Amino acid sequence: MSQRPFPVQGTGLGLRRALLGPLQDADPDRLEASVDFMEVAPENWIGVGGRLGHALRAFTERFPFVCHGLSLSLGGPAPLDETLLRRTRAFLDAHDIRCFTEHLSYCSDAGHLYDLMPIPFTREAVDYVAERIRRTQDLLGRRIGIENVSYYAAPGAELSEIEFINAVVSEADCDLLLDVNNIWVNAINHGYDPVEFLRDLPGDRVVYGHVAGHHEEAPDLRVDTHGAAVIDGVWDLLDVAYGTFGAYPTLLERDFNFPSVDELLAEVDRIRLAQDRHAADSALDARRHG
Is 80 exceeded by the pLDDT of residue 281? Predict the structure, then answer.
């Protein structure tokens, strides 16, 4: 369990532009009963004004927010986009964003690749990415969390995925955004035990977590899409994560194929039920051993 206070609490929902209207029209009591915090990608909102800008401001004044970046390309060969970092810092400050996270991947070189590419699991890459994370933290004026990402190939690997993640987090002295769906997807695609992998992560670095749906392309191939409901196996892995690290704040990601607001909130409610169950179990254990 993390020894530091979390930047947000409870259950979250990723705010996408396609959800603005439905969430604005939703029963406010129902929405606030389910959702404790929201998340946006700052690149999608920096410089946006007018009706959309006002709509975002209405939500950031109503809920605590975190930001999950899409395009810093922490593992990429091109220099860090320090202009984007300065604009991101201004956005974080303007909306009182509680936490900023990014993907442990890269997505650009001479142009944007519009996908998350795997960083080679090497010692050289650990040093390179850690230095870029430290520079990012300096420019943003705050610690950041990096997300364990889904990947479909591991070219030139010298370390295992878990060794690579743990080395980067330690050397960069940054936090971790824990995505259990990505662990599930990678475990199937690369043939490892998701529970063993999860338990080897640095739980004291977790700032919050993601759950999401994915697509089953074949029995041995999953594609991380964020376009479907969360499957039972991922819910079970979230239970393991809470049992291992405590009931950390967790957010539902959905990027397309949006169901009704009621269906979305039912998934968010399932996160809360798991959190409440583990909190009750922890309290019972404390009384038994107190």
Answer: no
Closest CA to 44 of 63, 26, 27, 19: 19
Range among 145-154, 204-213, 223-232, 273-282 with highest mean pLDDT value: 204-213
Picking from 11-25, 67-81, 102-116, which range would have the lowest pLDDT averaged per residue? 102-116
Do residues 74 and 102 touch, judged by C-beta distance below 8 A?
Answer: yes
**Alpha-carbon separation of residue 194 from 167, 188, 219 (angstroms):** 19, 8, 16
Torsion of CA 178, 171, 40, 142, to 10 degrees: 130
Count Cβ atoms below 10 Å from residue 134 Cβ, excluding itself. Answer: 15
* Domain limits, the chain: 11-289
Please identify which residue in the block is written with the tokens 């920096």. Answer: 46
Phi/psi at 101 (nearest 5 deg)? -130, 160
In sequence order, which ranges of the chain are alpha helices (DSSP H)? 17-25, 28-34, 50-60, 82-94, 123-140, 161-172, 180-190, 194-199, 232-245, 261-289
Whole-angstrom distance, CA of residue 249 vs CA of residue 275 = 9
Which CATH fold would you assign to the domain 11-289? TIM Barrel (3.20.20)
Q: Please state whether beta strands 100-103 and 65-68 pair in parallel, antiparallel, or not at all (unpaired).
A: parallel
| Strand-strand pairing, 144-147 and 175-179 | parallel
